[in-house]
Amino acid sequence: MISPAVFRINVLSGLTVALAMVPEAVAFALVAQVSPLTGLYAAFIVALITSLFGGRPGMISGATGALAVVMVSLVATHGVEYLFAAVVLMGLFQLVFAACRLGKFIRMVPHPVMLGFVNGLAIVIFLAQFQHFKVAGPDGGHTWLSGLPLYTMVGLTVLTVAIIYLFPRLTRALPATLVAIVAVSLLTLGLGIDTRTVGDLGSIAGGFPSFHLPQVPWNLETLRVILPYSLILAAIGLIESLLTLNLIDDMTETRGRPNKDSAAQGAANVVTGFFGGMGGCAMIGQSMINVGNGALHRISGVATALFLLSFIMFGSTLIEAIPLAALIGVMVVVAEKTFEWGSFRLFGKVPRADVRVGLLVAAVTVVVDLAAAVVVGVIVSALVFAWEHAKQVRVSSREGPDGRKIYDVEGTVFFASVAGFQQQFVPRDDPDTVEIDFRNARLMDHSAIDAVNALAERYQRAGKHLSLRHLSRDCTELMDKARRMIIVDYHEDPRYRVADDKLA
């Protein structure tokens, strides 16, 4: 049973998150060139379904900017109905991903990539707030606020940030973010301060979302149009959600369920596509607000969704009166708390390659998008890992009691290290009898097996007798020319797997 205090914290946190989600959902809808209600319906449906059935209680999902920037091209070219169809297909791809139980692979994302992702996303959240300091000009463009309107916005933003940081020193009975939003809103209304509000982004008034079959031709041509977008949207949504899940796991020292969350996200996107929503995924900013408030139950996400629906149906007038500066202040604090400031202390204490990977991922996250950043980070990390391990193969030699030459190999022999491994042997300079001992080495892939076969062939051509010791049974099965040179010792030979399709 959940105690009344925990229930109150989760419900109030849900209210706070819902208030912060409104301008984000509206702004992302405008980025995708769809109506504000399209973004709000997505926020409601995705938040509700993922909160009820997802694998990470406390994580908040909804319409996001990472997806909106991909959607805009489809909407501009083919219209919003094609977007709804693409969101449905996106959800189906995510359901297939979950059915194949591929969520576990998110655990393979290296820590430097996670740091870069978090820091890059914090920068993106912070920079995104500056768009609210622009207004539409008479020529259709956007210009920066200036004079008193600018000073008012900045002052209210600073006041919001100050309340969020100072209020917990008085009491933690109420979420500081909610107190800040309410206090700044009452201040502007009470003093009649003229400043930009949520209503300036567009009306959020509407009814309950209704079933809507995408009005597109259901044929192969439509599939050809939406397929690339759906694949990209599905990948971005899953990557952002699973990385956010990992981040919350680390913060709370608990364990989420990636496959269950992927399935819930897929189902949510299928539903939202049929109810006029733009789809969504995990929102790291809102999730950080929720977790920071101590709300780690599904109640908080469900409350967020229900509050969003109530804003749309009943409370649009009140919500539209909230100053944008109050919500900007909340997101500035989120960005500050999301950024891993401790990563600066790692300079000089961790390998330079890890630092460079983190900086690269952060930069790509800011300049391109999250999905590209993670893919680039994982590839670069893998290449760095291969390069570093390739340099760790060592070969030493000694003379045996019967005059034979014995090579002792240490390290991992694989595709990146085979060239250096082969260069250690010069058959023409060796005596007639040579032995290579792999007791402290591992042959990890087919490239390593080929390297040993090639080495055996070199010794054969030189007329030398070569023996191979302490190889795994897998290696023996895969050897060709070198098989008869292997000395098998079932008591001493190691047992490990070699990555090769032939063994399957």
TrEMBL record:
Residues in STAS domain copies: 402-468
SUPFAM superfamilies attached to this UniProt entry: SpoIIaa-like (SSF52091)
Domain of life, source organism: Bacteria
Electron transport recorded as keyword: no
One Pfam family cited in the UniProt record for this chain: Sulfate_transp
Keyword hit for Membrane: yes
Location of the protein in the cell: Membrane
InterPro entries assigned to the protein according to its UniProt record, in alphabetical order: Membrane-Transporter-like, SLC26A/SulP_dom, STAS_dom, STAS_dom_sf
Keyword terms, alphabetized: Membrane, Transmembrane, Transmembrane helix
Primary location group: membrane
Membrane association type: Multi-pass membrane protein
TM region positions: 37-54, 82-100, 112-130, 150-167, 174-193, 226-248, 268-289, 321-339, 359-387
Name assigned to this protein: SulP family inorganic anion transporter
Organism: Spectribacter acetivorans
Source organism phylogeny: Bacteria, Pseudomonadati, Pseudomonadota, Gammaproteobacteria, Salinisphaerales
